[in-house]
Amino acid sequence: MVSVSLMSPQQSSHPSEYPLPTFSKLGVSAPQNPDALKTASSWLAKFDANLSTANVEGVLGLFIHGTYSSVSDKNDPSALSFYWRDILALTWDFRTFEGTDIVRQFLVDRLSEAKISNLRLKLGADGKERVDYQQPYDDLAWIHLMFTFETAVGIGSGIVRLVPTPLAGSLGEICWKAHSVFTNLEDLKGFPEKIGNLRNRQPKHGRWVEERERERQFVDNDPTVLIIGGGQAGLEVSARLKCLAVPTLIIEKNARIGDNWRNRYEALCLHDLIWYDHMPYLPFPPTWPVFTPAKKLANWLESYAESMELNVWTSSTVLNAKQDEDTQLWSVIVKKPDGTERIFTVKHVVFAIGFKGGKGHIPKYPGMEDFQGHITHSLHHGKADQHIGKKVLVVGACASAHDICADLANHGIDVTMYQRSSTFVMSVKNGSQMFFGQLYGEDGPPTDEADRIFNSFPNLLNIGMAYRLMKQVKAADKDMLDGLHARGFRTNGGIKDAGPLLMVWSSGGGFYLNNGGSDYIIDGRVKIKNDAKIEKFTEKGVKFDNGSELEADVVVFATGLGHPIEGVRDICGDEVADGCKSIWGLNSEGETSGIWRDMGYKGLWYMMGNLAMCRFHSKHLALQIKAMEEGVFGERYSLED
């Protein structure tokens, strides 16, 4: 996360700010015109020498030394710590290590096996080293450097942030030490992606159609990987695997790729900016709108599958998947469009069906069976004009609820939003631009580079950055928030007052990025009900526990999509589902649980997330599978729960 605007110096008084290496904590003043390239080159040379010789204490000497050393310090705003986030490169897992003792143990356990070498400053397209001095706030600054490196089996990239610290034995001089390090596996040695100069160079005179169909039907063999679900998650990991020459088949229950978006409610439109949503290998064209309509995205996904020559079976259903205890291979029964079944024996099964496979969660209330109107979920809500002349109650107050309410209001329909709990609201105009800074935009860096910078901030550190940023966003959104409050709409600052950051990872909901929906509440076209809990349904509507009643002909529940593990349960059974690791949510290191890596069963994976998450982490999942297939996968260094 990068903010380009400066704030005046401030005392770190909020618990969320404890990770920030402010000048007051470091005991220095703002550096004046530092030579970023010279400093970065010198530090990286020392880092390289100590890593390549597995000199743990030498490596630790290049980091800041603060007061943070135990969990008990985590709510102390004056504490100081440092971070090392690794994705696969050294751990074959997603890990964030914090503080001297924990980083020391990590290095002792992994340096000798990883065999890190050949650290070099990364060069940009212009041939210049990717090093710069950044000062996101008046009391916070660092030298940001990007580098490449090698391990025993892979090629990696890294990012370091060096902060100024007092030079021992001197008066007023500083030395630069690391506050955060990010290491990321990019490729496997000897197994590069088949792209660019490594693409297929053989002509297919008259044979392409036949060969593509044989490949798609898997006439001669079974795939190595079977992916359940053909949304963006399934497509992007399939594309990654194809470029790594791993035979893969997607099973999609809908008639067409993209139907998971095409068949949603008419008004659905992405709230993320287009620059954040590009897909691997095939970015959106420069004419693409900033906010993508769902049906347009659906068509793009269909064309993506065709352009990338992904193997997809549509109108097909996975009935069952069982693992052989002896071989650990997966037997997967697939029902084809003609009703016949085929049994595949595969090494890897990837679930890419989102939250509960898109079934939708409707809470149960007394009297629902007596209600004479229509009850549905936002997943199954179609066009607003179906409800003209009716009274509609939308239960929920996040993205889908706002979109549906605005669409209904545009058709002159009497609509009320029932808000069960407070919602974090941030405008796209102000908040999204500030949140993504200069990373994802028309003039931003290449998407791959932006992804690495964005993910180089551990969530534990990002909380502090997000907390400060949200204060700026709140000020910019003051008129909108005041207008919502005047209508009785309840808002909050997000978990730890850090906006949507932790809400995305913890539950995937609870927030709304306003791209117009809030205006309908502010001007009264969408009414708000939030002064009581639903007690029961009546024949004509809904009764609340304060005695009030609301008439309704239609009730639309925009109440989330359930839990991801239920999709696994439907196909693999209770025993496997109950034995899986937790899916989604953050663990104690601030890493997302259970997705993009080991789920607790060999060859079982879960791929999910928005377009940007899938773009970045599909490569990680594919690299793990490729490493296993080529016999170069090391020992996973996982957090002990």
Automatic annotation (TrEMBL):
Name the UniProt record assigns to this protein: FAD/NAD(P)-binding domain-containing protein
Give one Pfam hit by family name: Pyr_redox_3
* Keywords tagged on the record: Oxidoreductase
Q: Which PANTHER family match?
A: FLAVIN-BINDING MONOOXYGENASE-LIKE PROTEIN (AFU_ORTHOLOGUE AFUA_4G09220) (PTHR43539), MONOOXYGENASE, PUTATIVE-RELATED (PTHR43539:SF26)
| InterPro entries, sorted | Auxin_biosynth/cation_transpt, FAD/NAD-bd_sf
> What molecular functions are annotated in GO for this chain?
flavin adenine dinucleotide binding; monooxygenase activity
Highest taxon listed in the record's lineage: Eukaryota
